[in-house]
Amino acid sequence: MAPRPSPALTFDLAAKCPTTKARAATMHLPHGSVQLPMFMPVATQASLKGLTPKQLEETGCKLCLNNTYHLGLKPGQKTLDAVGGAHKLQSWPYNILTDSGGFQMVSLLKLAQVTEEGVRFLSPHDGSPMLLTPEHSISLQNSIGSDIMMQLDDVIATTSPDLARIKEAMYRSIRWLDRCIAAHQKPESQNLFCIIQGGLDLELRKECCKEMVARDTPGIAIGGLSGGEAKTEFCKVVDTCTSLFPTHKPRYVMGVGYPEDILVCVALGADMFDCVWPTRTARFGNAITDTGEHNLRHAKFADDFGPVDENCKCMICRLPSEGGLGITRAYIYHTAAKETVGAHLLSIHNVHYLLDMMRQVREAIIEGKYPGFLKAYYWRRYAGDKEKYPSWAVEALRGVGVDLMIDD
Ligand SMILES: [Zn+2]
Questions:
Q1: CA-to-CA distance for 147 and 187, rounded, in angstroms?
Q2: Phi, psi at 13, each rounded to 5°
Q3: Mean pLDDT, 10 residues at a time, the chain of 408 residues
């Protein structure tokens, strides 16, 4: 069956890597077009930690994440309806993706309990019992007005040994998808994505793909990963799922944000990623670079007057003569521990780093040079020491025709 076109999402495939499963595409959404593959920064409470909307715009971001759970509590649905949604609330003219709110509840609230009806929990405000149903999650996301909404799913840790519970969660997530589709009031302006579950069991994942792909949502996510499972298992799930997805729909792997994980997932055919890690690690003084993460709180940077990253063209790293701030490592060292400004500056750099890496990835795919890009990236990351390459990445990339150990 040919997928029906979504009124709020068009997916134009620009190029396919001749070797791996990587793709480059343009996704047209209600608040503008975005280039895939892409990384989406996470703005928890309608603000990216450490960045103003203007600063986020300067990194080139055209799609960021908001958390339904946080927005539902504050400012709350009534205020969201009154102001006309989250774009207006945070003065963000580009696209927004919202999660369902379920994951936050299960991970933040110890007393959350999942039943067929929904997720039961005690209000963090007054301890009163509350219930998040698929219908309520969609109603909140309709009030937020996000360009991409996620279904409420039943999330289980991939490391859970309880296969019966994983199976129950997978089938429940399919039933909840049907309830989400039925509850969705604005399909003409908001896209609902399904979330594939099934833990690390490839047969369950395949069954979930079959059922959810048949429901023909505008985009598809792979959920429940990045929970501490072995990276080899993680890659098998991504590889298995993308092989069962239709070509002309965006594929989103949730919660993935380390550069190496993203690069491998792109080779396995995924298009979209999100993670709080770039801004979280910035708050600990870590700058992400091609040669790995560097902690600028280390005393060796006290008199280092070089830019945070010589190869970076972000607002922070560019010299004043190039229109940037010309921030030095020494400045971050002396401010990171005491002042929030150090963390803010590093957040801008880190978000820019990931967005820029994705721009390079896309260019390499379009030029048919992604395998060479992967080899060059790993070589820089590990200073040419192939012994240090993570075996899971080497193995996963071999599976799609790229051998990191062999130079071209
Ligand atoms: Zn930078």
A1: 10
A2: -75, 125
A3: 76 98 98 97 64 81 89 90 93 93 68 88 77 94 97 88 94 98 97 97 98 97 90 97 98 95 98 93 93 93 94 93 93 78 88 96 98 97 96 98 94
Contact 171, 199 (CB under 8 A): no
Distance 59 CA to ligand 1 centre (A): 10
**CA-CA distance, 73 to 68, in Å (whole number)?**
9
Domain range summary for the chain, segments of one domain joined by +: 10-275, 282-368
How would you classify the pairing of strands 95-98 and 148-150?
A: parallel
C-alpha 289 to ligand 1 mean position (Å)? 8
Question: With b meaning 16 or more CB within 10 Å and e meaning fewer, what string describes 66-85?
Answer: bbbbbbbbebebeebeeeeb
Does 10-275 carry CATH code 3.20.20.105? Answer: yes
Burial 363-382 (b: 16+ CB within 10 A, else e): ebbeeeebbebbbebbbebb
Residue linked to tokens 């190496």: 260
b/e map 320-329, b = 16+ CB within 10 Å: eeeebbbbbb
- Active-site residue 126, yes or no? no
Catalytic residue among 147, 271, 274, 309: 274
Q: Which residues 6+ apart lie within 8 Å of 300 measured at CB?
A: none
Cis bond upstream, residue 259 (ω within 30): no
The reply to whether 274 belongs to the active site is yes
pLDDT at 125: 72
pLDDT of residue 262: 98
Nearest Cα to 403, choosing from 372, 361, 382, 359?
Answer: 372
| CA of 378 relative to ligand 1 center, distance in Å | 20
What pLDDT shows up at residue 42?
82
Please tell me whether 245 is known to bind a ligand: no
The per-residue pLDDT for 135 is 97
pLDDT for residue 157: 80
